UniProtKB/TrEMBL annotation:
Record flagged with keyword Oxidoreductase: yes
Organism: Aquincola agrisoli
Presence of keyword Transmembrane helix: no
Classification via SUPFAM superfamilies: Dimeric alpha+beta barrel (SSF54909)
Domain (ABM): residue spans on this chain: 1-90
Pfam families assigned to the protein according to its UniProt record, in alphabetical order: ABM (PF03992)
Transmembrane segments: none
Record's protein name: Antibiotic biosynthesis monooxygenase
Lineage, top ranks: Bacteria, Pseudomonadati, Pseudomonadota, Betaproteobacteria, Burkholderiales
UniProt keyword annotations, A-Z: Monooxygenase, Oxidoreductase
MF-aspect GO terms: monooxygenase activity
Length: 109
């Protein structure tokens, strides 16, 4: 399994940002191999983080090559004040059932 973490500092969003953001999320969820996602905000820095989980690197690459993703990437400086992408291989995920998580019930074989 893989995780793609998109960390960014936001500027002002507009209607086009929201349209692209929703189109990308919809596209990601439709890709075979999509497992789930979560989002975080660091209140101290104002930075945001979106984490997508994937069953394969090919599934992750399908999103990276999607036309809406490429469109958003080309225009990112309109809405973002810097970003970083971290691609990680998931070795394991565990915990109790008290916290719902996209990887609950999945195991990295």
């Amino acid at each position: 399994m893989y995780a793609s973490t998109f960390i960014f500092a936001k500027k002002q969003y507009d209607d086009e940002f929201h349209r692209l953001d929703e189109a990308i999320a919809t596209a990601a969820r439709a890709i075979p191999g999509y497992i789930g996602e979560e989002a975080w905000e660091n209140a101290a820095t104002g930075q945001m983080s979106n984490v997508y989980y994937w069953a394969s690197l090919e599934a992750l690459q399908a999103l990276m090559q999607h036309p809406r993703h490429l469109e958003a990437k080309a225009a990112q400086s309109r809405w973002l004040d810097g970003y970083r992408v971290v691609i990680s291989q998931v070795l394991r995920s565990y915990g109790d059932e008290g916290l719902a998580h996209p990887l609950s019930g999945f195991s990295a074989a």
